[in-house]
Specification:
This protein is mainly alpha-helical and 318 residues long. The chain has one domain. It contains 15 helices and four strands. The chain has helices spanning 12-15, 35-57, 61-87, 95-106, 113-125, 140-144, 154-160, 166-169, 172-179, 181-195, 204-231, 247-252, 259-264, 281-291, 303-313, and strands at 3-4, 92-93, 295-296, 300-301. The strands form two sheets. It has a two-stranded parallel ribbon with strand order 1-4. It is globular.
Length: 318
């Protein structure tokens, strides 16, 4: 298994981008997105809440199980796919796994992979500052959901265009997702999950409304990583970096709660230093595909590097 040392975390080109002091938030007054977009976003949430009600009161048991499976696959598309594979390049994947991960990621009704990766790479470079798209220094609401409803801060706009995603532009599978994004975003996150329950006698209405609940669940799980794991918990690995270890989030977020470790060593495929990965479902997912040869070159951080960082910069809570 390839191992990397402390100075290998940030590529040389990205290291040149001007940083801000964290945590920080200036007095910038954010401008709301157009009313139509904000209204659709609010309706999206309301539809999700109603879908949860329908799931509990009207859905068949098979639909409940199917919804749980779709949540799991969607989260693997985000965590093992766009996050650990494409954004951080923490392991490599055969084309068949990449295609599957694209499908899983699209289940979440998300934007192009290159856009997601650009935003997240900037987040790591400028965490908890005005150049962070979901700056947690502005509070839980902004980091969790507010940033999606306003135009980005000028510091974000200035730096985001400097983030290099040329590695992803060269990827044919990623390019396919971007080229056909509109069609794929109709078919995969909406049509397939809404129609499939009809195979076991579920009505389209129930399948469709429950699907909005699923989409809201995955959105909030990912958002908790942006909010809770930056504002709650502790920093046993490095108290000088953003991100905290927050045990509850580790379970709820499928293994992404060890955020202090991840922000310290972002190119470690585990996103956690713990050998026991029973709560790190994304790591288990990657391990499975490693056993069948679809995932390989998994990057880890050596125990000595972890130990030295804890001793030098940890807050003493681990």
């Amino acid at each position: 298994t390839p191992k990397f040392e402390e100075d290998e975390e940030i590529p040389a080109d990205e290291a040149k981008i001007e940083k801000l002091i964290a945590p920080s938030a200036d007095s910038h007054k954010f401008e709301l997105l157009p009313l139509g977009q904000v209204s659709l976003f609010v309706l999206y949430w309301l539809a999700g809440f109603y879908g949860g009600y329908v799931l509990v009161t009207r859905a068949k048991f098979a639909t409940v199980i199917f919804t749980m499976l779709m949540v799991y696959l969607g989260m693997m598309g985000t965590l093992a796919g766009v996050h650990r594979l494409w954004t951080h390049r923490s392991y490599k994947a055969k084309p068949q796994l990449e295609a599957f991960l694209v499908f899983c990621f699209l289940l979440n009704n998300q934007r192009p992979i290159t856009d997601w990766a650009r935003t997240h790479r900037l987040h790591h470079l400028c965490s908890d500052t005005d150049a962070d798209p979901h700056n947690a220094a502005r509070g839980f609401f902004f980091a969790h959901v507010g940033w999606m409803m306003v135009k980005p801060h000028p510091e974000v706009v200035k730096r985001e265009k400097l983030i290099d995603v040329s590695d992803l532009k060269k990827n044919r599978i990623v390019a396919f997702q971007e080229k056909y994004i509109i069609l794929l975003l109709i078919l995969i996150p909406y049509v397939i999950p809404s129609v499939t329950p009809m195979l076991w006698g579920e009505s389209f209405f129930v399948g469709h409304t429950v699907n909005f609940f699923r989409l809201l669940v995955t959105l909030n799980i990912v958002s908790l990583v942006n909010s809770a794991t930056h504002l709650m918990g502790y920093k046993p690995i490095d108290k000088t970096v953003a991100g905290t270890q927050f045990g509850i989030a580790g379970i709820v977020c499928f293994g992404e709660g060890f955020h202090n470790y991840h922000h310290t060593f972002p190119y470690d495929y585990r996103a956690s230093e713990l050998g026991d990965v029973k709560h790190n479902l994304a790591t288990q997912f990657i391990h499975f595909f490693e056993t069948i040869g679809w995932a390989y070159d998994l990057k880890t951080t050596s125990d000595d590097v972890i130990r030295n960082r804890v001793l030098k910069k940890g807050d003493g809570t681990d």
